[in-house]
Amino acid sequence: MAVREYGVSRMATIKIQEGERVKRVLHIDIETRSDVDLAKAGVYPYSESPQFKILLFAYAFDDEPVAFANLASGEALPETVVRALTDPAILKVAHNASFERVCLSRLVYGAASNRFLDPAQWRCTMVHAAMLGLPFSLDAVAQVLGTGEQKDKAGADLIRYFCVPCKPTKTNGGRTWNEPTDAPEKWQQFKDYGIQDVATERDIYNRLQRFPIPQSEADVYVLDQQINDRGVLIDLQMVEQAIQCDLLHSDILTQRAYELTALDNPNSVSQLKMWLEEHGLSMDTLGKKQVAEQIRTLDKNGCDAELLEMLKLRLQMAKSSVKKYQAAERAVSADNRARGLFRYYGANHTGRWASRSIQLQNLPQNHLSTLNEARELLKLGAFDSLEMIYGNTPDVLSQLIRTMLIPRPGCEFVVADFSAIEARVLAWLAGEQWRLDSFRSGADIYCASASKMFSVPVVKNGVNGHLRQKGKVAELACISEGQLVLTSTGYRPIQAVTKDILVWDGVAWVRHEGVVRRGIRRTMTFEGLTATPDHLIWNGYRFIPFEYYAAMRDNANGGRNIFYSGLRPVYDIKNCGPRHQFMVSGHIVHNCGYGGASGALIAMGALDMGLKEAELPDLIKDWRASNPRIVQFWWDVEKAATNTVKTGNLNRVGLITFEHYAGELFITIPSGRRIAYASPRLEPNKFGRMGITYMGVGTNNKWQRLETYGPKIVENIVQATARDLLAEAMLRVSHAGYDIILHCHDEMCVEVVKGTLSVDELCSLMSVNPLWAEGLPLNADGYTCPYYQKR
User: pTM value?
Assistant: First the structure.
């Protein structure tokens, strides 16, 4: 096979081939039971439960016939298999291998040991499939690949019967578990199901060996599993108090609502609407934004005191602050550490991680200046004092969520993240030298952008300072991670909004083109919204910059309510319906486009900042003229990808290589890792020209044909490259002997004995350029903290 199919060097390829060939392979599938909800708690608490049990162990060495051990009926696991589980000369393979590895660790080392089988001895076909742009589930991968072996679809019913506790009844003799002897025919089907899973997984594994996982990426997988095994300590006292505080506060709010309204259920929308109408206020909806707007109007104009109080109660009752605390409570093991919080290769184009359980990648921000005092009041159970001092208990609980993650006694957290990593990567890949020079010198990128656009010096608050705003508009205005978007499936953090979910634009449910991540930006917070100051927000008449909106409203209400939140990961949503807007954290905001059209600049804050809509085409021209290499990069990438799909020939754009073979479009990024698009072909697209489509997971989690184009492919390339920079930095930090306990987007958090690692040392480790990233101006910033937080 040609070396180009590996995306790694020839020597590395030979090493992988020889290393895999000399090892025997043990294919494994286990069926288990536990009284802990696996979906809610994760595999670590699930397998730690006293009621956890491995029922069936199906396995096959290499191409030998599939065998099984009936552990539920007292059959012992063969000694050859027991030895193989810890033998480094035998490669263990499973689909979603982390489940088998953790569960079998309990068998080998005992449930209470928190010692786990070495992940370096394991391979996961689910991860391997994701790397090739394929679905995650075993049955879906087998169907897409058309393997000779397919998953038995009867398994779901059998799992419910044997693996989940049953309700005791007179009919079943009061039992809480269904045993093999209770349904011998079903048990035989269950054994056959496990055997078939091994056969299917092995068939998938053999098919995927044409595209081996490079050793560098296997190392990242091992580190990911070690981080998941290590976990993070949870302040369980604080968690329990937060849950109790929320319950008591909810009871107080509900009781007061009963007293005010005398309604059977004051939480009922229909009942409360009728009550409001009886008091002279008609509302079409009781959404957060509408209720908050009414409160501000009534506060200003005066009204019935009971009416105003009820609306304020409604706003507080609608805010849920405890789901993360409840998730943490479920996820902790006996040693109070929450494990298994990260899903490796959660995004199969970029390779970015996804979150599990507590969802660490969408934690609310913290802006309280007295964070430590609020935290201590909560831990002491001083709920009345908390409410008296801060006035909004649900909001305080939300801001304290991060602080439930704590280091071991005698230790501290050192946190660091890359600065504007995606903007730097894009400039580096495109060769936009003036931007690279600006990043290296630490210059204000908005001033640098305006200076380049208008060919004059631009200094903030100085010469030509008025042009800085135009340079700022031409950059990216965004919404902070964790901000809640109103969708057809309820409120979702902006980074969790997928293309198959409709969003509310203030008038109707509309489709969009998905979420785009805009890197790390300076943000501000006002009225529950955290965004960049230049993001456009609807003020009831028109869209204006968030900073202007906040200043006007804050001055009208006495001031001191605006918080400048520092650097945050930020996002936007592309092309939300005909009005190009969506609702987030109770506000209507403008959306963005991608690739730089008038709609995109409007979304980035162009209007009401000294610019008219008629000016925007010229501003687009100016931006494109000042960033010619980035613009050219978009279209060079599209042309290369299109030509590759059309002809099958290899194409290159700078550091990026495009290849088409074996039914996949492979894009090799500078690190040597490849982005894969399955079954690509050329078809007419929404822009009225021939464009690339590919097979991927789309609406309703279905495997379907999707579209892509130049700027969108560039977005994936940039995010994938940023991900690899973080992955290499994590490996570097780990090899230096430091324990990473969590990571989020472009940030990592290390748990160390106090005083043994400085912020500068961690930032220096992060900012080392890999050999493949020569010339990329990396920079990182960080801080130490006694509990996890954002600064």
Answer: 0.78
